[in-house]
Amino acid sequence: MVTAAPTRPGRLDVEATTPTHAGRPRVNRTFYLFLLPTLILFTLSITLPAIMGITLSFTDSVGFGEFQFTGLTNYLALFSDPAIRSSYLFTIGFALVTVLLVNLVAFLLAVGLTAKIRAKVALRAVFVLPMVISGIVIAYVFNFLFSNSVPQLGQAVGITALEQSLLANPDLAWVTIVIVTAWQAIPSALLIYIAGILSIPGEVYEAASMDGASSGRRLVSITLPLVAGYVVINLVIGFKNFLNAYDIIVGLTNGGPGTATRSVAMTIFSGFTGGDYAYQMANATIFFLIAVVLAVIQLRLTRGRNAF
Amino acid sequence: MTSQTPLLSAELSRRGFLRGVGVAGAGLALASCARTAGSGPTEIVFYQSKPEVIGYFDDLIDQFHQSQSRVRVRHDATSNLAGTFVRESPPDIGCLNYNFEISRYVERGALSDLGDMPEAGRILDELQPLIDVTATYPDRTSVIPYSLMAAAVLYNRQIFAEHDLTVPTTWDELIAVCDTLAAAGVTPLYSTFKDPWTIAQGHFDYSVGGTVDTTTFFNQLKRQGTNVGPDSPVSFEKQFLAPVQQMQELVPYSQDNAESRGYGDGNLAFANGEAAMYLQGPWAIGEIAKSNPDLDVGAFPLPMTDDPADRKVRVNIDLALWIPEQSTKKEAAREFLSFLMQPDVIDAYNAHALGFGVTKDAAPVSNATLVELKDFYDRAAFYLGASQLVPQSIPLQNYTQSLAAGADPEPVLRTLDADWRRLAFRS
Which InterPro entries does this entry report, sorted A to Z (chain B) (predicted)? Predict the structure, then answer.
């Protein structure tokens, strides 16, 4: 879950420096001390394991015992592996569809929940509820619903398409994963949109309605442009999170039927339990590079925006 | 690296779930490993995670503690085993299913040689090929089998009697039995396609093992290295096509909602007499009895040819004992191993867990269902399930799920060949 505290990039460093006679700003050492604990923890728990993992991706290691360096063998095997390719295609497609669905629903909900309606606060609490439930629990509950309740409902109302479990349909199982993931992810996007919409000054709307703008016109011409920064952030962060899809898929389809819904993260983790350690480390390295590219895009897009 | 480390094992199978949850427990295990015993008894860690018998082994450990005071055993049922090896603090002794999962520990020499122990000499000679085809390390006895499971078609004797049916001994008889049952409005076969492992160990393994000699096939396949395809002597596409097609002929005799039913549903439905046959191993017998203790269950090997003499049962080495090279307390671990291998202890375990004995001096199986398979076992008319011999990095279980759903077998088997080639290329 991303609940990044808003930090202002840019000019802050000026306050932390004092000019010296050499003309070069001297940074107060205390600021480095503040950084130190995070830096040490980050190095120990992220950077070092990442370097070890990348090193192992050039070997035939199974995670323990003897191993040999095998050069680019794992990477060569990786690029010719249709299973890897299809896991990337599935994951990227899934992330795109989900991020669009989540943002569309969350934005419309946010518009509704910031309008003058009854029980606004209570409704907000209800819509945020899915966020606090663990993904695997949600997945098992929905697994039961899709396997038993939905087919029974389909039978009762005579919709033949629903009589067979969606989870067992190789062409449609991904839809269930999109639905459940979206159900869980909408609240966090919703919160950001609510904050965004509430930050728009009321005067703008007043002026617009005096000029005779309809409510639809106000939504398109005022609300949407003024929360555009939030939309970008929700899209990029959401997409990056959905690329890591794991727990909900495990609980719903476990990658099936067949291999129709195997995500990249599942494939990588299978290397840990399945003895394909070095090979999946190579896969993880590629995946890491993709994440880096996305992070750079995110920084580029959000730089200079008024939000974050 | 991705920001979240998943806490759950990728395979949420019967056993996988417990193990996955146990990742959290691994930290605790580590902490207590660090405590080294000064004087007094040596504490060893015993890894055993088969969920049905965790309590049983706790009782055995108590017995062991009462019989001597030199060695204390701590039972670890929840750690992530791969994690303990990666962290270089494996358990001192393990007792685990011997299959694709354990094979890499054997092949990388992570398990110590037990060949000098008298217990190694008591193992049935017929089991050696099964051990070797799974994994070997030169000049080492890496594991000592403890329990063997023989799996076949479970059938409801009462339903068979009501329709005057006898156990089929050929493929045609099997189809005739299914047709008779279907015509009488009885579901011939209960299938649980929602859980891929049930297809892999049942429909797929029974079909393949009834036609192909899996030991010969996999030994040859390993010798071929990366040369697995249309031009090689053996390949999945060549040898497995016919049995897989037969499997797909059998699938339509399943109940209508097989795609959305899992292992638990299957046990309950079979216990309630909703179907005549059920492709599950002896581990399901106890689960079925929980819902309906009076159900009269029989077992027969799935006949795949028109010669009754071709019938074989599927076996797997359900438990095997091993001691990692990295254990610093091998002597204490060996003492516990010898205790577990005492004839009365191992016989009592196998009677309890519905396993077949693996030693030359073992007591014969006595379970009312499994006695029907005894003759096959005694004649060594058995095979290792093909799904147990394909490394986990190939998603075979998922492929069998596609096959059960009616996927064209040739492309699936070609994919399997290609996966095997790629695995051979990089290892």
Answer: Bact_solute-bd_prot1, SBP, TAT_signal, TAT_signal_bac_arc
